[in-house]
Amino acid sequence: MMDTRDCACGQTVVRDEAAQWFVRLREPVSDVELRRQFQAWLDEHPQHRHEFEVLQSLWSAADLVPAARLRAMCETPPARHQRRPVLRYAVAASVVAMALGLGLFSTLNRPAPYTAEFSTATGERRQVALPDGSLVDLDSRSRIQVRFEKDRRGIELTEGEAMFSVEHDSSRPFVVETGSGKVTVTGTRFDVRRGSNETRVVVEQGSVKVQGRAAADNDFISLTAGLGTQVDAKGKVAPAYAVNPAELTAWRNGKLVFNDASLADVAEQVSRYRDKPLKVGSPAVGNLRLTSVFKSDNTDALLKALPNILPVAIRTLGDGSQEIISK
Asked: Is the pTM for the entire model greater than 0.90?
């Protein structure tokens, strides 16, 4: 089900709700339940707090305007039987109009700076809603650091894998960094996996620009839907190649899909779903290829099946971790 905050009409609804709360709280409030409901509304979504703070800023901005000019801009014919809250709402609306006329709104309504960190535990998947309406799906043992500024929406994927559904905003690019490279978009849907030696990028919808860590602005690889690339540890971006986004993002449905994947890559991915890491015993074993599908919440089944698929065995080490070795 789509979150109504992710569309223009949803943003209007949130602003209306913010205005209603703003009016209700103009008078001193001793109702504990009302305060509790207001706090719950603020905590429900970052956009709620942002819209309410914008209204507060506009109201405070009235103090910066000469009293005579403010009275002139807010002057409306009085209605005899209007309730006081409605009058207050009308004044608030006048302050908004006044701010627009003075050019204050363009300053006060700039997106508020936002920083946060989100992570998942072993075996956990989580969806995070960001203040701009974008969504991030985090795979098991993944972590992102979020830093939104007035002209840039920044994300650092410090560990694991994440699927980004980015709300379009041409004035504020959405940039995902992974250490060796970065992905820049204005609005699209794509997946980024940060491994030990490389970063993989897959586009499901829209387009992205992939660059190495120290690349010049004009040095990038463009990806559209159905294409992917990799960035190695030195920041070198591979040419775009065709991918199956549904297979590579099947982790969102609790599946691990391997299509001619190296055992080294398999071991690295599977390790994110286990308390102890899965290792490969030698480069030769790591280069063996696997094509199969497993459930991410039952990686023991994968280890049990491997010796029946490939010429390998599973050895348990002293620290409880396991290693894939040649038979």
From this structure: no
- Six-digit token string for 253: 């449905």
**CA gap 153, 133 in Å, rounded:** 12
Do 241 and 120 lie in one domain? The reply is: yes
Structure tokens at 142: 């993944």
Q: Kindly state whether residues 129 and 148 are assigned to the same domain.
A: yes
Q: How far apart are CA 281 and CA 279, in angstroms?
A: 6
Q: What CATH number is associated with residue 320?
A: 3.55.50.30
Q: Is the pLDDT of residue 86 over 60?
A: no
Q: For residue 149, with 0-12 CB atoms within 10 Å meaning exposed, 13-18 middle and 19 or more buried, which class applies?
A: middle
Q: Is 213 found in the same domain as 121? A: yes
Range of the structural domain that residue 263 is part of = 254-326
How far is Cα 28 from Cα 116, in angstroms, rounded to an integer? 32
Q: Domain end: 108, 130, 146, which one? A: 108
Quote the CA–CA distance of 21 and 313 in Å, as a whole number: 64
Helix (H, G, I), strand (E, B) or coil at 222: strand
The number of distinct structural domains making up the chain is: 3
CA 103 to chain centre: 32
Classify burial at 154, counting beta carbons within 10 Å of its beta carbon; exposed 0-12, middle 13-18, buried 19 or more: middle
Reference 177, options 221, 136, 210; nearest CA is 210
In the chain, the amino acid numbered 58 is L
CATH number, position 207: 2.60.120.1440
Tell me the DSSP string of 68-108: HHHHHHH--PPPTT--HHHHHHHHHHHHHHHHHHHT-HHHH
pLDDT digits (tens, 9 = 90+) for 147-195: 999 889 999 999 999 999 999 988 899 999 998 899 999 889 999 999 9
DSSP letters spanning 244-277: -HHHHTGGGGTEEEEEEEEHHHHHHHHHTTSSS-
